[in-house]
Amino acid sequence: MSAFVSTIHRTRNLHNLAVELLGHLQSLLLLAIRLYWGWQLAQTGWGKLHNLDQVANFFQTLGLPQPHATALFVALVEFVGGILFALGLGSRLISFVLFLNMTVAYWTADREAFGQILSDPGKFYAANPYTFWFAALLILIIGPGIFAVDTLVGRAWPRDGARR
Predict the structure, then answer these.
(1) How far is the C-alpha of 62 from the C-alpha of 74, rounded, in Å?
(2) How far is 157 from 164, CA to CA, in rounded Å?
(3) Which pLDDT belongs to residue 116?
(4) Which of 45, 82, 88, 133 is a Cys-bridge partner for 102, taking CB atoms 3.0 to 4.6 Å apart?
(5) How far is 155 from 87, CA to CA, in rounded Å?
(6) What φ, ψ does residue 148 adopt, rounded to 5°?
(7) pLDDT tens-digit profile of 28-80?
(8) Mean pLDDT of the chain
(9) C-alpha distance from residue 15 to each of 6, 25, 27, 56 (Å)
(10) What is the number of other CB atoms lying within 10 angstroms of the CB of residue 116?
(11) 111-150 residue pLDDT tens
(12) pLDDT value at position 76?
């Protein structure tokens, strides 16, 4: 029986070590997600800013109100939001705005895929907004990690007013 208990203890210790080591990779993963998808969002927004008439025409076919103003707003949200997302500046607020933006994109341009999130998940995650939507959701819930401007600002100006 002691061999069994010893094996259990060794397994638990290996598990704890693995959890600790993998925990150190969390912020690197969050940084990679922010940099990659922030850059992609900024590029998408930049492209929309340079093709506002085409974007507005597309938005008009979707029945969106004020298609030109909506196109400009969405382009700016994606361009500026993508840059801030990559930097990790205002991460939770920016992630929330981007998550809402991508939810609206799903609802208006990929409604069928959005409606099949449970019944046909493959269709849901194959839709164009998915990766932006999911990246924004991850950062919204988990946070930007330690490699973010938000973290630097938080260390310089802690909430309780005491310097760290």
Answers:
(1) 14
(2) 8
(3) 87
(4) 133
(5) 16
(6) -145, 150
(7) 999 999 999 999 999 999 999 999 999 999 999 999 999 999 999 999 999 99
(8) 92
(9) 14, 16, 20, 53
(10) 15
(11) 898 888 889 889 998 999 999 999 999 999 999 999 999 9
(12) 98
| Residue keyed to tokens 């840059």 | 83
Q: How far, in Å, CA of 100 to CA of 2, rounded? A: 56
Here the tokens at position 98 are 């981007």
- Phi, psi at residue 120, to the nearest 5°? -145, 75
Q: In sequence order, what DSSP letters do the residues of 60-121 get, joined into one string? A: HHTT-SSHHHHHHHHHHHHHHHHHHHHHTSSHHHHHHHHHHHHHHHHHHHSHHHHHTTTT-H
Count of Cβ atoms closer than 10 Å to residue 58 Cβ: 16
